[in-house]
Amino acid sequence: MTPEELRQRLDPIVGREGAPQHAPDPVNEPMIRHWCEAVGDLNPAYLDDDFAAASLHGGRVAPPAMLQAWGMPGLRPRGEIRSGPMGEVLALLDAAGYTSVVATNCRQEYARYLRPGDRLNVTAQVRSVSDEKKTALGVGRFVDQLMIYRDIGGEEVARMEFRILKFRPPARATAEAGTGRPRPRPARSRDNAFFWEGVDERRLLIQRCDGCGRLRHPPGPMCPDCHGFDWEAQEASGRGRVYSFVVAHHPPIPPFDYPNLIALVELEEGTRIVSNLIGVSPDDVAIDMPVEVVFTQVDPDLVLPLFRPIPGR
Amino acid sequence: MKSDRSEIGDRAAIAGIGQTEFSKDSGRSELRLALEAISAALDDAGLRPEDVDGMATFTMDNNPEIEINRYLGGGDLKFFSRTHYGGGAACAPILHAAMAVATGVCDVVVCYRAMNERSQQRFGAGVQGRPPMPVPEVVHFGWHSPYGLLTPASWVAMNARRAMHEYGITSEDFGRISVADRKHAATNPKAWFFEKPITLEDHQRSRWIVEPLRLLDCCQESDGAVAVVVTSLERARDLRSPPVRIAAAAQGATTDQQMMTRYYSEDILGLPEMGLVARQLYQTAGVGPGDVATAIFYDHFTPFVLTQIEEFGFCGRGEAKDFIKGGNIELGGGLPINPHGGQLGEAYIHGMNGIAEGVRQVRGTAVNQVEGAEHVIVTAGTGVPTSGLILGVG
Lengths: 313, 394
Ligand SMILES: [Zn+2]
Fold this sequence. Notes:
The structure holds two protein chains of two kinds. Chain A has helices spanning 3-10, 29-39, 44-47, 49-54, 67-71, 84-95, 171-177, 193-200, and strands spanning 21-22, 100-110, 121-129, 133-135, 138-150, 156-167, 205-209, 215-216, 231-235, 239-248, 260-267, 272-276, 290-299, 302-309. By secondary structure, chain A is of the alpha+beta class. Chain A folds into two domains: 3-27 and 62-169, Thiol Ester Dehydrase, Chain A (Roll), CATH 3.10.129; 193-309, no CATH class. Chain A is 19% helix and 33% strand. In chain A, strands 1, 2, 3, 4, 5 and 6 form a six-stranded antiparallel β-sheet that branches. The longest helix of chain B is centred in the first third of the chain and has 16 residues, at 30-45. In chain B, the strands form two sheets. A nine-stranded mixed β-sheet of chain B has the order 3-2-4-7-1-8-11-10-9. A two-stranded antiparallel ribbon of chain B has the order 5-6. Chain B is built from 13 helices and eleven strands. Chain B has helices at residues 30-45, 65-72, 92-102, 136-141, 152-167, 171-185, 200-205, 233-237, 272-285, 303-311, 320-323, 342-345, 352-363; strands at residues 12-19, 54-58, 79-83, 109-116, 208-211, 213-214, 223-232, 244-252, 294-296, 375-379, 386-393. Chain B is α/β, with parallel strands linked by helices. Chain A binds chain B through residues 172, 175, 183-192, 217-218, 224, 243-251, 253, 256, 259-260, 262, 264, 271-276, 282, 287, 298, 302, 304, and chain B through 124-126, 128-130, 132-136, 138-151, 154, 157-159, 161-162, 165, 207-212, 255-256, 261, 263-264, 268. Strand 10 (239-248) of chain A pairs antiparallel with strand 5 (208-211) of chain B. The complex binds zinc ion. Zinc ion is lined by residues 209, 211-212, 214, 223, 225-226, 228 of chain A.
């Protein structure tokens, strides 16, 4: 769908008033109490019969800001919401790839207080759909909606202008949207598989040349000293010292927590390895600090050899 | 000791340079930026597109030679080469071009780098979403990525922290590099940070990116393109602009080379590949540090500028922190560096804008001209296999 085609299909919907939708429940005291407790507004005019009766309201009223709650269709909407002008606009924008939504502005005007027993209906119209805009969330279109709340006598009791952004999520944001985006996976090759298989078994291995005994990390297929291809894996003690370290702040990259403490650890055997330091605050890390490996299940299918300060040292 | 001198010195020249404006959002394709810079460079040289028969660039450039040539209306291409390793490539296309014209493989080589690095693909965002394929570069990346060591700033910060520990370098010492670059950019109208100098206090107040690096230790991210025309020294002498002699050009990678993560060598403080480049350049050009009036040192992050000063022999190991004090690397100092403002101040065009500045300094046409710039050093990316040039008066 080109932007022109989308605009042609949106135009007849914009400005059309939808059929009135009846609020599922009358204005009622239990919902008022739940709302007041949730938002922490304990005004006795909403909650206390005696206080309210003696007040200028002459009885309990609903918090005006609760307006939207009365028109909400519930968790399992009965179908009207995706029909009507707003439903048609949302469906068109979804089809055009603007699949994500965020509310950006809400403005309410109240004609009178609502009281328990009021039965409301809501009519909605889409007042405008913007051209495509670049936003921090991605490219999208702003949709301005006007909802008018009337009582059973047809008198307007409140209106609400509601603005949302329907946007196209950037590819990266989509991947992050799921909880628990995994850490980047180390690539396993025929040259380094032994190391990661060792880690899976909670053993820290170092490659040792059969020809000259040189230890090497990162491991590789050939010895740069004696040029031999044969090697074995030697298990490391798991102890070492901080050779250098950094504290990453920016940019934050999921799933890492920031500040992220990353160290270059020199093992007792002499090879070095990069890892995270855990159990220590960045301010307390120092070069040469003794550390030991702690195998950590960072994701359901990934164990990493992390390091922590050696207790009592 | 084995000689590091090569036969490439004085065989070829830079006959033209061209560039686009440097911005944060060019609003144009990278292909168009490349073509604009190349057209300007050819015009500077007084050459026509059909004179071009060679091209050289970075593997990281998104514009294939054949795409460039098709729209440029260039001649038949007899030579095209690309150099790997990010910004370490910067001076290598000039070396390759010089070798190609010196051996008669071709006559006119266009070297280019065009990127919408800020508006299209930010390197600073870090490497994300790379599938764990069992190929060597990805395997190597896998020693660091599971821990969140994903960005260029973080890779450099690891070496920088150890250097601070060993040599007593402070964050303020890093800041002096930034202050010098921004001072120079402040009087360069083409620089993004024109008329925006900073103080050491500004540097110290800037936020952490990856400790021990602050925001003002990190170069900009930029959109733009730079092109350089290389031909033989003889032919260049007959062209429109004064030729700039390629007195020496070299690449370097050492036996234990790593890509941004020299963490596993016995010594992680130096830049031995840059030392290798420096030795080749000095011996090939037949000059030493005392003959160099100004140097364009690759400055993606401030710590490795200190290291380059040492690797090029302007002071001893660990002494750069003292060498740079008192404005010694600023205009009017003993060794003004990056008179255009560098990548911290002018723009980050992967080192190619530094080559253009080297040419202007030798021609005597730079906006911040250094007196007696008969020999100018230009370097490429640090912490990676790298390259360098000594440019001289043609
Ligand atoms: Zn061996």
